[in-house]
Specification:
It contains six helices and no strands. By secondary structure, it is mainly α.
Length: 182
């Protein structure tokens, strides 16, 4: 177990903490949940940086890191959809969660074909993740209907647009293999 992998495990362990703190009946709970989410999001950047810098990339880390990200984002989006109870927020949340399911399945299938590299993470995917994390941080830390929540919703829509764009790029790259047996 190396430092990057420990950070990834910590990120997963912080997910229930975000949920518990978010629902606490205190005035500071939204800020606390947003703060914990920000710490967890920072470990995403830090574990990748350290894995490359210290040459500590592992198969376990390559598997667990994207799982941790998807869990963290999906759990937070589900909580926010429940709290906001607003179709305006639900639409990008469904797009983001749905894309993660489709691309995870596509990557698994492409790996079985030995073509995992054709659906590797792109710069658009990294930008999408950054916008998702920022949007979720803003939405967790603000009250629905506030200016901060509005900025968070707009940012989430920007992330959803990048989500669709990156999904299109991945599907386009895999399309010849997807339709080969039709």
């Amino acid at each position: 177990m190396n430092i990057p992998n420990v950070l990834t495990v910590i990120r997963i362990a912080l997910i229930p903490c975000i949920v518990v703190v978010y629902y606490l009946p205190y005035g500071w709970s939204l800020y606390g949940a947003a703060g914990i989410f920000a710490m967890a999001a920072a470990t995403d950047w830090l574990d990748g940086y350290l894995a490359r810098k210290l040459n500590q990339s592992t198969a376990f880390g390559a598997f667990l890191d994207p799982v941790a990200d998807k869990l963290m984002v999906s759990v937070a989006l589900v909580m926010l959809v429940e709290s906001y109870a607003d179709p305006f927020l639900t639409v990008p949340a469904v797009i983001i969660i749905g894309r993660e399911i489709v691309i995870s399945a596509l990557r698994e299938w492409m790996a079985e074909l030995g073509k995992r590299a054709s659906v590797a993470v792109s710069i658009i995917g990294k930008l999408k993740t950054m916008l998702q994390m920022l949007a979720i941080f803003l939405l967790l830390g603000t009250v629905p209907g506030s200016t901060g929540a509005y900025v968070g919703e707009v940012t989430l829509y920007a992330a959803a647009v990048l989500t669709l764009w990156s999904m299109w790029m991945y599907l386009r790259a895999a399309w010849p293999d997807l339709v080969k047996d039709l």
